[in-house]
Design goal:
The protein is mostly helical. It contains 19 helices and 2 strands.
Length: 501
């Protein structure tokens, strides 16, 4: 019998520091297992298209255009996005290397710092945030679809006047249609997601560049670089750095579970190359589009737009409006799958590895994203600010603890085999499967992060809350961490599976 069928870590995988152990069905299945190095398919282009889609998301455009409204001019916005891009390139490369080396998804990666049982804490926090945003993003995309349907069939507007559980008939049709499309795509696993992202990336870039050119033409090929309320001096630079920090915070979820994707990466070089083209350079292109859209609209009528959808609605040609709207739908689906669908799938797999696989966990995640009626969440500031905002604030400390443990305490020496055993002698068993030191560090720094997010007295530093939380998480953990070791570096190849689902 093979290693994969028996789940045994055989003699070929043993070293003096790696006692014979059995892979536990409570910790291991084909989706949580490390991926074989041979056959990995995520190259630099695939990493790049992740960012080509995610950077150009509607939420990011709304955020960046909001900087224009807050008093930053064109070049200041580019500097803010450039600084944020530089920080993200470093953080995402470090996070990505972890996945490439170990071949495991985020919930399993969390076992290194938090223990084989304690890892449920970061996995559930990340998964809960993702499921809520999956539903919300699907709802926002369904609003665009409703506009397209009415544009193509004006009589459909009659279906948009009633309400059932907060949505009209047309709203339900649009939401369920997009929900089904995403479930079908994800049900084919990470390989189908890779192909979809590769398809969607160029579509989005071409569409947004075309929209910027159309706006330039409408503004007689000139834009407003500033508004009358533009900031200067120290206030300007503080807002630039604050904007860069918030830009990093937006990706606070992704820097945690980037390993979900890079576990399939062909090499570290592919990660660096894909990140370089997809983060700092792509973000400058994104910034140029933002400045063009906002500046052109302000020059035309003195109005500051809130999102690209505001411009799309004003396209006079129905065919062009539909094409632009379809591109925005393709974009939103791409972003939703990578940022909000994959994380809860692995989190659920980690909770019930004996009963779930990628497809079943995807369906359960999607059902939860539907039954929570996400449009009602989106329309409730209290839910968005306190529930999702509170969970989001904890992501900074989680990142700091996990990264400090991996890079500074263990220096990237990871016993991948021990991540899947309940043996009390296993390196990641700690105290009944929980690293109490990591949990204590999380509780202490989570309290600080939540205070920064919600206490009015800390409003002045709220823009830097993710960095503060991540930094404190790392520092507190390094102070109390057990550094005695030994920290063994053992490959997971003996129990690895092919990197496609």
């Amino acid at each position: 019998m093979t290693t994969e069928s028996t789940g045994l870590i055989g003699d070929s995988a043993r070293t003096d520091a790696t006692p014979f152990a059995q892979v536990s069905p409570h910790l291991y299945n084909a989706d949580l297992a490390p991926t074989k190095r041979e056959g990995r398919r995520w190259g630099a282009y695939n990493i790049f298209t992740l960012w080509a889609n995610d950077v150009h998301s509607l939420g990011n455009y709304s955020f960046a255009i909001g900087l224009f409204a807050l008093g930053l001019g064109g070049w200041q916005i580019l500097v803010a996005l450039g600084l944020g891009g530089a920080f993200l390139f470093l953080l995402l490369s470090l996070s990505g290397f972890m996945g490439e080396k170990t071949g495991v998804p985020f919930p399993v990666m969390s076992r290194i710092a938090f223990g084989i049982r304690g890892a449920q804490i970061p996995a559930i926090v990340r998964g809960a945030v993702a499921i809520a945003w999956f539903g919300i993003q699907t709802y926002l995309a369904s609003v665009v679809l409703r506009i397209l349907i009415v544009a193509l069939a004006p009589s459909a507007a009659t279906l948009d006047s009633n309400s059932f559980l907060g949505l009209s008939t047309l709203g339900w049709i649009s939401f369920v249609a997009l929900w089904v499309i995403q479930v079908v795509i994800v049900s084919y696993g990470m390989e189908m997601i890779r192909k979809y992202e590769a398809f969607a990336g160029p579509v989005i870039l071409i569409t947004m560049v075309a929209l910027a050119i159309w706006m330039l033409n409408s503004a007689d090929w000139a834009i407003a670089w500033t508004t009358p309320d533009s900031l200067t001096g120290a206030d300007m630079w503080l807002k630039i750095v604050g904007g860069a920090s918030l830009w990093v915070a937006i990706y606070g979820t992704f820097v945690l579970n980037f390993c979900d994707f890079t576990r399939n990466a062909t090499s570290k070089r592919a990660i660096v190359k894909g990140n370089f083209w997809g983060i700092p350079l792509n973000m400058l292109v994104f910034g140029g589009i933002v400045v063009t859209l906002a500046g052109a609209q302000f020059r035309i009528d003195g109005r500051i737009i809130e999102a690209p959808a505001d411009i799309v609605k004003e396209i006079p040609n129905t065919l062009l409006l539909v094409l632009a709207g379809l591109a925005l739908l393709i974009l939103t689906v791409a972003v939703n799958m990578m940022a909000n669908f994959v994380a809860p799938i692995y989190a659920l797999n980690n909770l019930f590895p004996k009963h779930l696989n990628f497809r079943r966990a995807a369906f359960i995640s999607a059902v939860i994203g539907l039954v929570i009626l996400p449009w009602n969440l989106y329309n409730s500031p209290a839910v968005i600010n306190y529930f999702l905002g509170g969970l989001g604030a904890i992501l900074g400390p989680l990142f700091g603890i996990i990264m400090a443990d991996y890079w500074l305490v263990r220096r990237a020496n990871i016993n991948v085999l021990a991540l899947f055993t309940t043996d009390a002698k296993g390196e990641y068993h700690y105290a009944k499967g929980i690293n109490v030191r990591a949990v204590v560090a999380l509780v202490i720094t989570a309290v600080v992060a939540l205070a920064l997010a919600f206490v009015p007295a800390f409003q002045v530093v709220s823009e830097f809350s993710w960095f503060i939380g991540a930094g404190l998480g790392a520092i507190v953990y390094l102070v109390i961490a057990d550094r005695r070791g030994p920290f063994n570096d053992v490959s997971g190849e003996p129990i690895a599976v092919a990197s496609t689902h």
